[in-house]
Amino acid sequence: MNVTGVNGSVYASNAEIQKLKTTDTLNYWSRYNVEAYGLTLAGVPTASTFTILETEFGVPTGAPTNLHLIGPANVTEASLNWELPMCEKRQGPFKSYVVNLDPHNDKVKMQFSSDSQTRKPPLHIVGLLPQTTYLLRVAFENAAGIGPVAEITFKTKAQGDVTGIRALKQWNNEVFVTWLTPDINHDHGTLLGFEIEHWPQSDVLNHTKSVRISPGETQYWIRNLTAGTTYQMQIFSLYPQVRIGSEVVSFETVPHPSGPSWISLQLLDRSSSTIQVSWTVTGNPLPVETNYEVTVKLVRSLLPITPHFSTITRLVSDDGIRELSFTDLPPASEYH
């Protein structure tokens, strides 16, 4: 007898003529083509008979795959997605997902893209507590049972924390940091100011704290850093009774160049309201992470009335092009 699976695997077995029975170990939830035939004493096969065999379901052996957040969790909500286990590990057709969230309370609601029985993703969770770490577990279920668990931890944001943190103008010993002011939709009271803590990534216990920054400021220079070092920083919002930390952000200072470098600036084109410049670096190459600051200042104007003009400064990352245009400039004027 030959038993052939859909993947081409063949199980061959023999049975004594008195029993006409044989046993093979097959996979769960699989279809096989079964061919049975006899052999004469001379070894000549008889005519074959054929049938199709489908095996029973088994308990899943694989967990859901690619469990992940759809974007960062906010203060009270999070969205997640995941995919089916590998086909050979499902052991049977899909029945539902078993989903568990810890910690959980009556205010937490799980909203699935399908009905609440099958619980197919994506999953949107509302009613979470701010600044809380959650553990989500998901398992695949078929008619035979529940399989292994996939899990993920995530943390909701704090109410009143700063967002949009960016490290700009990274030099070898300082970095310029900007951020967005906290949302006022909280009950912490009046914002008193900010504090920034930074530390080398290789020495997480060596925190350096800034002076208190006024609540109206959204930028700060972190100085006295070590060149060529990866740092982490966190910005704290200060309220009368609580100090709320932001997410941790990494940045890297520029290494000291091993030799001198020169930047040469060239005027490519100009019109009545636009100038286009380019620049080249000679000598020792600058680090890949280098940013360039290009500034245009009004020197004098030939117009009857001197136009009101603010100095324009652009921060440009080194993408290899090293060209920049300044538009909407007052005409008949000299610039530096």
UniProtKB/TrEMBL annotation:
It comes from the Eukaryota. InterPro entries: ECM_Regulatory_Proteins, FN3_dom, FN3_sf, Ig-like_fold. Residues 63-161, 162-256 form the Fibronectin type-III domain. The keyword Repeat applies. It holds the Pfam family fn3. The keyword Repeat applies. Keywords: Repeat. This is Fibronectin type-III domain-containing protein. The lineage of its organism: Eukaryota, Metazoa, Spiralia, Lophotrochozoa, Platyhelminthes.
